[in-house]
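Ticket #4471: structure export looks truncated?
Reporter: QA, pipeline team
Priority: medium

Steps to reproduce: submit the single chain below to the structure queue and open the exported record.
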Amino acid sequence: MTTLLGLCVLVATGYVLLPTWLLLLRRPGRLPAAGCSGLSAEPPVTVIVPARNEAANLDQTLKDLRAQHYTNLEILVVDDRSTDNTAAVAARHAEHDPRVQLLQVRHLPDGWLGKNHACWLAAGQARGRWLLFTDADVCFHPDAVRDAIARAEAERLDHLTLVPGSPLVGFLEAATLGFFGLLFLASTWGSLARSRRFQWAYAGVGAFNLVRRSAYEAVGGHEPLRLEVVDDVMLGWLLKQGGFRQELLFGGHRVQVHWQKGVLGIVLGLEKNAFAGMGYSAARTLGGAAGLVALFVIAPVYALVCTDPAALAACLATAATLARLTWLLGRRVVPAVCYPVAALVLVVALVRSAWRTLSSGVVRWRDTPYPLDRLRAARRRLLACGQRARRSARRGAG
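Actual output as written to the record:
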């Protein structure tokens, strides 16, 4: 027999799952192929690759970028104070391909995060009409840039961001990464980012943020994001506040990255991001963690013990959503029993991120500590900047 509690579980679960299904059911949900006649001209594109101690990954990324079926391409690699052979790897590629240029940062200016400064520095020297911000460990299909530009030009987008595929290893890693993607969509409503009516819906993914240069410069580039930890997501938010048109699609096989290796890698990898994603708010973090446990750990137990049809329907919907999402991300179907465990893993990652940040008073990123009070102040300034961009966009539309 369905109870009020079961109905509450079903409604709350549906609210969390809805943004993901809106993207899964869209046509196209994935980046479509451009085809032979999909791009009449090649606008200049600059790929910006910030790298710090990425010698082990950068070589393959640059090989993939140099192999793109796109001739009007510039590749700027920014070596951000690396202590390994990152610069040497980039320099070797630059010797064999004039499209590759190496920029080096010897000293990080005060008031900047390393990656954000690297992106800003490269954008200032880029010649492309389009800027593609990516990471040094991303793998690209030879048609990735061509297909993305064709989509952006055809749809008159200002910002196209792709969810990368991932070589998922093991059911629990797949379930955890899939659940993370589900929560990302639930928090940003990225599936509705294309609509200008929903300014609260936005998207940005660090592996593939393709931005029209004029839009990037109109919102101030990375300057408003100087001390923003989740810069990729908040760049998308800032562009949306500025009234620019954006779209989120699955990259599929065209863009792939093994973001973190194993469940422990995911927990450690979220140390700098998770608390920042909650706005550095302890109350919001505890509320989010409690909600995850209630909906995706306790509710399944309640549904099985009490055989509540509504709660069981919520559990089946979650399992089906996660199965479809992990299949799109890494061609792996995850057993339903994995998702409560994946939810617990993300709760641990979230609480751990908050605890480590609050107890130390800093966020540590690539061996550089950034004081929490400065990060919070920077987030407030960014929100104010977004409000100004929104007002300006409204005046322009009027």
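Status: closed, not a bug. The export was complete when the record was re-opened. Leaving a note from the reviewer for reference: The first helix runs from residue 4 to 24.
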